[in-house]
What we know:
Layout: H1 14-21, E1 29-32, E2 35-41, E3 49-56, E4 62-65, H2 72-84, E5 92-96, H3 102-105, H4 108-115, E6 118-122, H5 123-126, H6 138-147, H7 160-166, E7 173-175, E8 180-183, E9 186-192, E10 201-205, E11 210-214, H8 235-247, E12 253-256, H9 265-289, E13 293-294, H10 295-300, H11 313-332, E14 336-341, E15 344-349
Helix pairs in contact: 8-9, 9-11
Amino acid sequence: MSNRGGESVSALFPVQGEAWSRREAPPVTEVADRIWAAPIPVPGQGIRFVYSYLIADGSGGMTVVDPGWNSTEARAALGAAVARTGHRIDDVDTLLVTHAHPDHLGMAGDLARETGAQVFLHDADCLLLPEVRGDLDYVSLDRWLREHGQPLDPDPGTAMDGVVFADMERPSHRLHDGQEFRVGDRRLRVLHTPGHTPGHACFVVEDEHLVLTGDHLLPRISPNVSGFPRSGPDPLGRFLDSLGLIARLDPAVALPSHEYAFADLGERVAQVERHHTARLAEICDRLADTPGMNADELSQRLTWSRPWSEIRPAMRRAALAETLAHLLRLVELGQVRAWTRREVRVWSLAR
């Protein structure tokens, strides 16, 4: 679940900003020499589309960053976008993936088999994926939800972890921080930015003041940072540290996975930091009013982009996970403590 946070920055390319305001996908846009932003549809999702970045090497080859959702419609859109650049889908030789969510990684396995391209994903996100495609431990998901006061949806097909991870396969190639990829005369450097996922990676286009930010930094919304068991002891702390890494790249143009490209990278980092500071304070206020709440009870008392009654079950799980990430940050800061009451984790202010 994402949160707008009340602040945003303007679109660098009017065609992208205007399309977003009309709730439409923009046309394929050349955002730098031989780099195109191609909107790939995300069926049935509020995010509408993900940008797949097509980077030509100048010698007939192409690298794709985040190929997109695995659907017939998305595959057709990617093929049409590649054709718009004067290339064929068979020219794609490398697939770089920012993180293991289906709107980014979903198509990668099938596209690699079609084109022979190599797929790269950070090792920390590879570990999130099942060893066998389609396999998922719903018992563990049920246990995690019950521990935090939220019952499992009776239809496992709607479970958030199932949607996110079960229908993807582990890539055979791993990304690591500082790794470089040559795309023609360009150098793309991997910048590990954990938070949204443990293995989220941005790609810095060296010497051009460009950074492909994935979901780590978006112009209008703050990406979900989740307190899942495999997210580590302080995922929000890692996310905020990663924002600092991005801020050091300013001045630079951010090429995000959603919404639109923007130039105010440093200002946007500051806005997202303010949002999380406010959320941490809001949680402390709620716990001061009602100590001993579980994370689900607390989630229902927080401010979201819509009333809790209008939030779908899968998104309530995302809200729960985001609330837990903030609680874990407050524990790390020594402001909140947790204990178990009747097999459910509950939280209060430490003082």
